[in-house]
Structures are given as C-alpha cells and as structure tokens.
C-alpha cells in the first residue's frame, strides 16, 4: 500500500494520459473524471473512487494500486492556491486508511474534485 504520509510521492499535476494505467481496473459504469501524475506515481479520480498508483522498483514495471471508494470517505478538506503558495491540497479522512493528503501543483480545480466527493458523501 502507498505511504500517503510521504509528501514527495504526491506532488501532482494534470496528466490526462495517466488514466490509461487504471482502465483495466474500472468497474462497469465507472468513468475516469481526472488524472494527475507525480514523478513516479499518480492519482486518478473516477465517478466512484480515488485510485492512487505507486510505481515501484528501478524499472518502474511494478505498480501498487490503492483504491478508496468515495462512500468510505468520512470527511475531506481542500486548500486552494494563494498568491505566494501556488500549490493546493486535498486532504481525505477515512477510517479505513486514516488521513490521505494529495498536493497539487498550479491551479488545479479542487472545487470540481470536492464536488465529486461530496456528491457521494451526501
């Protein structure tokens, strides 16, 4: 499982092609909403869950996929970018995984992602 507390893993930027890594894992009727990539891993938001990909090993052929269904999220918060701090953050609280924090570069539309999560939490 991914070490969510290692911030270096999740300095994410938009990367639509990264979604291809999880297409084979999708459930019937599940669609990809957004994909973000870090140096070696990434995060994909679907209509049903968050899928984190951790690329392991020297060659990068070994991958760890961690799935967090939105219905298992107890609470979440977003921190938007500011004038000097250009990064934004999404923090998810789940009794299954604990606290999960994703840091995004630039002007990532976290309001769209939070709306997606909230739709399943309400």
TrEMBL record:
InterPro entries: PHb (IPR012544), PHb_sf (IPR037063). It comes from the Bacteria. Coiled coil: none annotated. It comes from Cobetia marina. Pfam families: bPH_1. This is PH domain-containing protein. Residues 15-120 form the Bacterial Pleckstrin homology domain.
